[in-house]
Amino acid sequence: MCAKIALAVFLIVVATASAANLPDKYYGTFDLSHSENFDEYMTAKGYGWFTRKLVTFATFKKVFTRTGSKNLFDYSNLTSKKDVHYKNIELGKAFQGEGLDSTKHEVCFSIITFTLKDGHLFEHHKPLEGGDAKEETYEYLFDGDLLLVRMSFNGVEGRRFYKRIE
Ligand SMILES: *[C@@H]1O[C@H](CO)[C@@H](O)[C@H](O)[C@H]1NC(C)=O
């Protein structure tokens, strides 16, 4: 009886774990195509005019790469300001990584967790104590062939669309 329950629990855990792999469609290199309401979003975050203009001229790429293991992936956020690489990410498992201070736009460390819900990928950043950065969640989903990244601050949503280049 006990053994049966244990086995059932084990199978459920295995089923859940194997369901939580990054879907194939996310793998690749994506280049920024266009944005919607992004200037408004940055304004809500308190970025000044000069920073917003700099961001307008910056280049942005997102790269999701396979690793040797099916449940681990690498992610890179490549920009002309700074490249950030996260290695061996496991969905649902928090790790410490570089993030950007949302108010001063400086590099700081955050606890980062990627999760998957209804086929959408979520990247949650919780800044470590000390800074005045705020928690932030980026949502990744597909809009046709484009990778859509949604982010919001104080109810102002910015959307950025990325085109697959590899
Ligand atoms: C990617 O980097 C840019 C600037 O280098 C930053 O503003 C943005 O928040 C980062 N995006 C994610 C999803 O981490």
UniProtKB/TrEMBL annotation:
GO MF annotation list: lipid binding
Record's keyword annotation contains DNA damage: no
Segments crossing the lipid bilayer: none
Record has Metal-binding as a keyword: no
Domain Cytosolic fatty-acid binding proteins: 28-45
Signal peptide start-end: 1-19
Gene3D superfamilies to which the protein is assigned, alphabetical: 2.40.128.20
Alphabetical list of InterPro entries matching this protein: Calycin, Fatty_acid-bd, Lbp1-4
Key words, A-Z: Lipid-binding, Signal, Transport
Record-stated family: Belongs to the calycin superfamily. Fatty-acid binding protein (FABP) family.
Classification via PANTHER family: FATTY ACID-BINDING PROTEIN HOMOLOG 1-RELATED, FATTY ACID-BINDING PROTEIN HOMOLOG 1-RELATED-RELATED
Protein name: CRE-LBP-1 protein
